[in-house]
Design brief:
Number of strands: 48
Strand content: 15-25%
Structural class: alpha/beta
Distance between the termini: 52 Å
Largest sheet: 7 strands, mixed
Helix content: 25-40%
Length: 1488
């Protein structure tokens, strides 16, 4: 009857779910099986794997698996599809998603649907809080712990659900899955078949809609979300009995293993009993058995079935002799003061059903570390509390207790509790200790569960501000008494003999003791003198003994959300009114995305900042470390310096769920940006001392404030000043936390009311587009403009911005969809297609009143093979067919836009468009059809040498953007228009335009700047940009986040520092890169000179740059000339690099033009010239590919400029100007051949190039650390993670480099790998530089060799082309890969790893030994096998994989590399040699 299997918990669960899943065929009825997997479920991969392998159910039918990546958005619709079709499903989910499932659970209960939800407790403490939170939805809750229990209880849940027609939640300890496989006894398939036949009629009854009806009328119709079902209509007593019967009937199949809804173990006459949930470790029973054997009268009751709760069965399972009961509460996130299980147990004993000798004393034992905190020692502590006959209250056992800190023996150093590194507090606490060091004293260091105010605390007293206040007051009083003692010894007649020096030091200290800096100075002097004079008098010995009190502590009290619920009761008012020099740091942990949802709004929270400002005499600041690190620093320093109480409100959003492609830090960053951008969390500082000096006390550090603060400023007459500094602040930003969004939108609505009225009688037209590259969006915009002229009422938006469930309400819909990859939908239409593809015709999806048409776009040349032809325009064609299948009617046939038609996509568009207007009955109206957006060459030709109307656009204050035409032209000036994609959707919901800003890239040939220029750039980053610098893969700086109003001044500031941005971007010769690493300074001087001369030679000659950005007046009416470029410049960008073997740190073969220095006898004799490299490509388009440059020939140093010009001129004249994806020099050479290209160059030169000279490269990385140069100076190469120079709580990199620049006498030299060299360091200055590097922890030795050889592009949130994260994600991925490297002894082995968010190749991932190219959020193509020297491309290894798959794939390969590599063999060479990937030496081979 049983088989033996080696399973872990996840396998055991999925085994039962798979073979028992009631959507399979039940002998006579073919029921489609469905397994719904909510990610990240530990069972998901197993179920998918079984489905992919074709594993069949017990009835010989394949299983169906449906994945839900976003539970909040998708699970309701997915389950609704099943229930509306009367199908039965199993749901696998992490327990953290159960709260999101509450509407679905109510729906299932109302439908009486026999579903089973397997919920894994995946948090580190196996916390069941989320399970308990759904206990009142009406579902049954049943628990298991071990692998064997998971198998058995899963079977019980499935059968009991069928028997009772109640949905079951089976919650289990997922950590058991991580403890390896166990041999368990499984029920054989044939026994399952026999068992299921007995339930056949129940399945048929549910399938046909007979028997028990939904408790809400129309429960399966119409609305997806139902109000809570009237649970009283259930016969739960009968249901409990049915469950008892199921467990009894299954006992024979379980081989004698017995389960009850309440399982008691222990003495039959026990007086003390522990009650635990079923997920708790069996260690409780083991300890109980030991005690019973020893004669103790104790026992344990395990709650197997928690809902329905049967008081009769609970009380019946207990000995009648019990006198004391301890309920072990393992939930760490309680929303009430008492645990749910405790309340149920206590209520049972007072229900009148208890027939024991005495009514037991029931106490709650709160286990500090959840289920994992329960051990034999825990049981001992619990019984010690029970037997001590203590007062009847809760007590804590196990784990760490919530701590507080005092200064230690010297009185100036506070040591925080062990939980200081918890993710929320950590950044702010680190900053406190960095700023105030040994002076820092912290109280109430809250752990996560007490920072989350409503979730309860371990010690309520310590969560109160009064607790911390009391501790600080004691220290203040001690220091005051100490000061009195010091004053006493100075008094005449004290009898104490003091030296003049000691008397002066003590007097100075008493005068300045409240000044941190001065008190430290005078105190240190006094301590030194006391050491030699203390023997003179016992009072001096007393002062010396308390010498720690000389220092003035920086006193901080830290709390969380619960402090805001009742400002009086929480002790906040007491701190504020104390007038003592005590600082409060209050963390607000509610994510903005939850705050804007009415159901998530916590109306108990009060604005402490506003309260404190109104009260008066308090310094107040509102900060967010992920929005402005510098502002946090400033606020903390001002709070510490303020002579009275301070309140610093710190935003620290709690992330409970991480979407694919994100991480907790990234989600925290996004939530912070949303909160600050919307005005929900304004950044400000209020310093009353400034008002006393006649200065403005309020400083707004963000752009928006809430209404309450707006009104306070107005009331206090400070608003006028704020409006002068922030003129864009309007009352619409002043909404309260509950109504801010509503008020902002209402203003928009009122302003357009008249327009809406006038359009009510017009025929509506919804235009949705799916576009990755912008072409489909452009077509959609043209349709929108023409629809307005045809008197229609159009709406235009990306497909995924439309609520697809509202589609049946639309009468006319047009989709414009491009094709991505192999027939895939573009990124902003994927969710729409996902929802539509899952939909079936039903009452909810009745599209009979909806008319539609689809314009599909693609390129037929991408699919030359007959078997691939169906991929052409597949997305649009699939959409057309699906809408028809859902009952919608076509306005006209699907339109096809083919890039290969005579006029490209315009041919098909112009054929389809008239048919659309005719179908809508508006074809006869006279309209002015919007002209097609000019080609890039046409834009350049008509721009008056790159002027366009940029100057006029900069003056337009109605928008933060420039026009599309001007945005193309500004690239030639070194700037790209971007918007913050993290907050794009939220701004769209608010009716706001995207948060536009500009990226500005500088032109710095060779990447060298002076210390003075570095300081200038550092200042521009703070005053005009987002406070950070980006060292790019083009060996220069980029600024991000410059808004339009600051753009022109930023250009002027750069010009004042003798720097510019012209030709840093655009279709010109861009920033010229040179090898940063040669140790020979004369060699570097020569290549740097060549870079500067070549950059100047091809610099655009137009005066537009100086006129627009520097206000240079036109001094001549003569038209500009571009003697080399002409009006249309180059077909595409053109990149030049110079390398010095053996170091290929510039990736010479990745660029259009390269010079390889040939050195003989210590001097450069000439250069090998390379042409035709480039990394960019398009996913799914095999006609685009990365290409390695060819070696064209050799030239002498004096020929370099001439040769380069002729190479660029051939590209200028022959490059493809009709298709920008085919316009780079690499395709010109591929199309014509390298011999033809050489002939063209030599013909223009008038001489032949010499044959290439031998050269050899060894790597394409940087040389880190100290290196001595031939001129006697030193350089130090710093690792800069992905080139981002910024300050964080962990590393003050920007501050460090600013301090270096203040004393450095050499130069800063950026590298092509995004790192930084400090050059020209003299022997005399080296110790000073070394000390600065140590002070700021800039030692490269702490990094693995892989991290040192890593590189990533910017990607999200600013790059408009990014499909996935890159710079913000790669460091965390490397963290995890480093664990694998450590396991295999590879930490110090250099392996290049690079990542980009799209296939354009900015970080040159195709030349990395391990390369990642983003395809979608959280999904990357993984490439392996490039050479370590940058002379061989890598090859696609795995497509569209996430982090788990990446690590799973890399682990065995890296292990194999460690074991099987040859001496000196690099990783890229190894994976090619052993056949993991094929070598790729030419671009055309890249996709093979």
């Amino acid at each position: 009857m049983m088989g033996t299997q080696s399973f872990n918990t996840a396998t055991a669960i999925s085994y039962i779910g798979w073979v028992l899943h009631i959507k399979q065929s039940f002998v006579l009825y073919d029921l489609a099986e469905r397994n719904i997997v909510v990610e990240p479920s530990p069972v998901g991969d197993l179920v998918h794997e079984w489905a992919n392998q074709g594993v069949k159910t017990a009835f010989g039918h394949p299983g169906l698996v449906e994945e839900v990546a976003n539970a909040r958005a998708d699970i309701h619709a997915t389950v609704h599809n099943s229930t509306s079709e009367r199908k039965i499903a199993t749901i696998y989910t992490p327990s953290t998603e159960l709260i999101s499932l509450i509407p679905t659970l109510y729906n299932l209960v109302g439908e009486r649907a026999p579903y089973v939800i397997h919920a894994a407790l995946q948090n580190e403490d196996s916390d069941a809080s989320d399970v308990l939170a759904v206990r009142q939805t009406g579902v049954a809750l049943i628990a298991s712990h071990s692998v064997q229990q998971a198998h058995d209880v899963a079977l019980i849940a499935h059968l009991a659900s069928l028997r009772t027609r109640i949905p079951f939640v089976h919650f289990y300890d997922a950590s058991a899955a991580s403890r390896g496989h166990s041999h368990i006894h499984t029920v054989r398939y044939e026994e399952l078949v026999k068992l299921l036949k007995t339930e056949h009629e129940r399945v048929v009854s549910y399938r046909r809609g007979h028997g028990e009806q939904g408790l809400e009328s129309g429960a399966s119709k119409g609305k997806l979300f139902l109000r809570p079902s009237p649970l009283s209509k259930f016969d739960y007593e009968r249901a409990v009995q049915d469950i008892v019967d199921v467990t009894r009937e299954l006992k024979p199949l379980f081989g004698g293993r017995s389960y009850k809804i309440f399982e008691y173990t222990g003495a039959t006459d026990a007086t003390s009993v522990i009650v635990v949930l079923g997920t708790v470790s069996p260690a409780v029973e083991e300890e109980m058995h030991r005690r019973v054997v020893g004669g103790q009268k104790v026992g344990v009751l395990r709650v197997r079935l928690y809902r329905p709760w049967s008081e009769a069965h609970f009380l019946g399972a207990l000995p009648k002799t019990v006198e004391r009961v301890a309920v072990l509460e393992t939930s760490q996130n309680l929303s009430t003061g008492w645990g749910a299980l405790f309340l149920d147990v206590a209520a049972a004993f007072h229900s009148g059903q208890w027939t024991g000798r005495h009514t037991p004393v029931v106490r709650e034992a709160k286990v500090q570390n959840g289920s994992h905190g329960i051990s034999a020692d825990t049981v001992k502590v619990v019984f010690r509390h029970l037997e001590a006959h203590e007062e009847q209250g809760p007590f804590a056992v196990g784990g760490l207790t919530n701590g507080h800190t005092n200064g230690h023996a010297n009185g100036v150093n506070g040591t925080p509790a062990a939980n200081i590194e918890r993710e929320l507090e950590a950044p702010y606490l680190k900053m406190l200790y960095q700023l105030f060091k040994d002076r820092t004293t912290v109280t109430n260091v809250c752990e996560n569960d007490s920072v989350w105010g409503k979730h309860g605390v371990r010690n309520p007293a310590e969560a109160s501000a009064e607790f911390g206040l009391g501790l600080h007051l004691v220290q203040i009083q001690r220091r005051a008494a100490f000061a009195s003692k010091a004053a006493d010894v100075l008094k005449a007649g004290s009898g104490v003999q003091l030296s003049t020096q000691l008397r002066g030091a003590l007097s100075a200290w008493l005068k300045d003791r409240e000044n941190a800096e001065k008190s430290a100075k005078h105190g240190t002097e006094a301590i030194k003198l006391l050491e030699s004079e203390k023997h003179k008098h016992h009072d001096l010995e007393n002062v010396y003994g308390q010498r720690a009190l000389f220092a003035k502590s920086s006193r901080w009290l830290i709390g969380g959300d619960r402090l805001t619920y009742d400002i009086g009761d929480s002790g906040v008012h007491h701190v504020i009114s104390s007038k003592e020099d005590i600082n409060m740091l209050v963390l607000d942990t509610q994510p903005y995305s939850e705050k804007i949802a009415p159901s998530k709004t916590d109306k108990r929270k009060k604005d402490i900042g506003l309260y404190a400002m109104t009260y008066g005499g308090v310094y107040v600041a509102s900060v967010a470390v992920n929005a402005s690190y510098a502002q946090v620093l400033r606020a903390l320093m001002e709070a510490d310096a303020y002579p009275g109480p301070s309140v610093v409100l710190a935003y620290a959003p709690k992330i409970t769920k991480v979407s694919r492609g994100w991480s907790v830090p990234l989600d925290q960053l996004k939530e912070t940006k949303l909160a600050v951008d919307s005005g929900y969390w304004p950044l400000y500082r209020w310093n009353p001392t400034l008002e006393e000096k006649g200065q403005e006390p309020f400083a707004l550090d963000s752009d928006k404030v809430k209404r309450e603060i707006h009104e306070f400023l107005e009331r206090e007459n400070h608003l006028a000043y704020v409006l002068r500094t922030k003129p864009n602040i309007k009352s619409e930003y002043g909404a309260s936390a509950e109504t801010e969004l509503k008020d902002a939108v209402e203003g928009k609505v009122r302003s357009s009311y008249a327009q809406l009225l006038s359009s009510l009688n017009k025929q509506p037209l919804l235009i949705l587009f799916g576009s990755d590259g912008g072409n489909a969006e452009t077509i959609a915009k043209r349709l929108n403009a023409e629809a307005k002229q045809r008197n229609l009422r159009p709406r235009l938006m990306p497909a995924d911005s439309f609520a697809v469930e509202d589609l049946p309400k639309e009468t006319n819909v047009v989709f414009v969809v491009s094709t991505a990859g192999q027939g895939e939908f573009p990124g902003n239409a994927r969710e729409t297609w996902k929802a539509l593809s899952a939909a079936t015709p039903s009452e909810d999806w009745d599209l009979k009143n909806t008319r539609y048409s689809v314009f599909a776009m693609g390129d037929s040349h991408y699919w030359p093979l007959p078997e691939d032809a169906h991929y052409f325009c597949k997305a649009g064609k699939d959409l057309d067919n699906k809408l028809a299948a859902l009952g919608a009617s076509r306005l006209c046939g699907v339109g096809i836009g083919d890039d290969q038609d005579p006029d490209g996509k315009e041919t098909g568009f112009n054929e389809w468009r008239p048919e659309l207007w005719k179908a809508l009955g508006v074809d006869e109206l006279e309209v002015k059809v919007e002209a097609v957006l000019p080609s890039d060459d046409a834009i350049k030709a008509s721009s008056n040498y790159l002027r366009g109307t940029i100057a006029e656009g900069l003056l337009d204050t109605s928008t933060g953007a420039l026009s599309e035409l001007n945005a193309k032209l500004t690239k030639f000036h070194g700037t790209y228009m971007q918007d913050d994609r993290d907050i794009r959707d939220e701004r769209l919901k608010q009716g706001l335009e995207p948060a536009y800003s500009f990226m500005v890239r500088m032109r710095i040939p060779g990447g060298i700047v002076t210390p003075k220029q570095w300081l200038a750039v550092d200042e521009i980053a703070d005053s005009k940009a987002n406070g950070t610098l980006k060292i790019t893969t083009r060996q220069t700086f980029q600024f991000h986040g410059i808004i339009k109003s600051n753009l022109k001044q930023a250009f002027k500031d750069m010009n004042r520092a003798c720097m510019d941005t012209i030709a840093a971007c655009g279709d010109v010769n861009r920033n010229v890169m040179v090898s940063a690493n040669p140790g020979d300074d004369e060699i570097h001087r020569q290549i740097q000179d060549l870079a500067e001369r070549w950059s100047r030679h091809l610099l655009p000659r137009t005066g537009a740059y100086h006129e627009i950005w520097l206000d240079k007046k036109v001094v001549s009416t003569t038209e500009d000339e571009e003697p080399f470029y002409g009006k249309t410049y180059l077909p595409r960008k053109f990149k030049t690099v110079i390398a010095v073997p053996p170091y290929n740190d510039v990736d010479i073969f990745a660029h259009d033009l390269g010079y390889i220095a040939i050195i003989e006898h210590g001097r450069i004799v000439g250069y090998n010239v390379t042409v035709g490299g480039g990394m960019g490509m398009t996913h799914g388009n095999k006609k685009t590919y990365p290409r390695l440059a060819d070696v064209l020939g050799f030239c002498t140093p004096d020929q370099c400029i001439d040769v380069g010009e002729k190479v660029a001129s051939v590209q200028r004249d022959y490059g493809d100007r009709t298709n920008r994806r085919h316009a780079r020099l690499k395709y010109t050479i591929e199309d014509h051949g390298i011999e033809w290209f050489r002939d063209q160059v030599e013909e223009r030169l008038g001489y032949r190039l010499q044959p290439p000279r031998p050269f050899h490269f060894v790597n394409n990385g940087d040389r880190f650390g100290w290196h001595k140069h031939t001129n006697g100076t030193w350089s130090y190469t710093l690792f800069i993670a992905n080139g981002r120079v910024k300050d964080t709580p962990e590393l003050q990199l920007k501050t460090a480099l600013r301090e270096v620049a203040k004393v450095h006498t050499g130069a800063f030299r950026m590298t092509a790998n995004q790192h930084l060299m400090l050059t020209g360091i003299t022997e005399h200055q080296r110790p000073l530089m070394s000390a600065l590097l140590r002070q700021y922890n800039l030692d490269n030795s702490r990094h693995s060799a892989m991290r040192l050889h890593s590189m990533a592009c910017v990607a999200l949130p600013t790059c408009g082309l990014a499909m996935a994260e890159s710079e913000r994600y790669l460091p965390s991925l490397i963290d995890k890969i480093e664990d694998i490297l450590e396991e295999n002894g590879l930490r110090d082995d250099a392996i290049t790893i690079r990542m980009t968010g799209c296939p354009n190749g900015c970080a040159r991932p195709q030349l990395a030994e391990i390369g990642f190219i983003g395809k979608a959020p959280g999904a990357y193509n993984m490439y392996l096998g490039a050479s370590h020297s940058g002379e061989r491309l890598n090859k696609l290894f795995k497509e569209s994989i996430g982090e788990a798959e990446i690590l799973a794939e890399l682990k065995p390969i890296l292990k194999r590399y460690a074991l099987e590599r040859r001496s000196g063999e690099k990783f890229g060479d190894f994976v090619v040699r052993v056949g993991i990937v094929k070598a790729t030496r030419a671009g055309r081979e890249f996709h093979d």
